[in-house]
Sequence to fold (400 residues):
Amino acid sequence: MSQDFSRDVCVIGGGGHVGLPFALICADSGLRTVIYDLDRCKVERIRSGVMPFFEEGAEEMLQRALASGRLEVEDRPDPIGSCRFLVMIIGTPVDEHLNPSFAAIDRALQGAREHLRDGQILILRSTVFPGTSQRIQRALSEAGLRIQVACCPERVAQGYSLRELCELPQLLSAFDAETLAAVRELFGRFNHDLVEMSPMEAELCKLMTNSWRYVQFATVNQFYMLATAHGVDFDRILHGCRHNYPRMAGMPGPGFAAGPCLVKDTMQLAAFSHNHFMLGHSAMLVNEGLPHHLIELARREGDLSQATAGILGMAFKAESDDPRDSLSYKLRKLLALEAREVLCTDPYVPDPTLVPLERVLAEADILFVATPHQAYRQLPPLAGKRIVDIWSCLQKPPLP
Fold:
């Protein structure tokens, strides 16, 4: 794309769920692409053509990109200087006080400092605290570097990133028209539905998108708690709310709302508001309190102290192998204080503490459906088991 650089794109932190699919799309669209990641084990797997996590259609695309020579995978920063676009897949996580941390971004920039070149464009792809783009642009300028910053946050669902990168609108932003035009050209290679805004608008757009979903989930989870606390079947209420009533068609069902994005981004927005985002804090209390509520429901049906509890699903969402910030693990910790034994299973998560599904079904006195994997929906009715199934995932045994 530029005569001044021998490569087009370097994805910094490119071995993860956000960076790797983006790198694959870039290489597949004809761009000379480098993945730079510090995790050597992950780098070796990617180099060998093996995906380190599940992503629909990714392994075939990875092997094609490697064979074409358009994709390189490195654990050293050396190739950074040869790339016109530097796509940073490093965000601003929240610390133990629920405030954003810039440490990871600062370390990454410092580590790449000697390889940065005038004329490059640094694209922030991960979710960042509002004002981060301006902070980085100022730091680069003060260091005497003529590198322009753009903020183009991702909004894809893990597992379906390759499809959604091409189908869903992409948010673009930059501090000047020339940089925005260059970013438009990059993203236009695989998507023509581009939404342009200022960097602060793009930063807030991503945070508000995830916060909106988190608050929605909290609302219906609060409804679920209200109904089930009084012994009412929430499935019937949900059906009544939605059935042929268009104003409630978008109402989600109850379930664990977690993962590496939703609560983090909601808390970043809360910090940005100087903790005046009351809805966000309330949503966190509801969603994070749901595992405890499920245990309270289980207690009503009998003593847990002599029971073996089984948890079905440890990933943070269905058909995923990603357990990061999954509330299933919070449920396990709480159950460890209540039950005689806790057995956990998941068909995708590579956790050595998990056991086969067959053992959980055979030994557990009470089952908690924590992640609604399709495999659980296909189980026959489990007669004789106490079941807590917020997702309405398991088939119910016929009434006597």
In short: The longest helix spans residues 199-229. The chain has 14 helices and twelve strands. The CA atoms of residues 308 and 341 lie 5 Å apart. The radius of gyration is 23 Å.
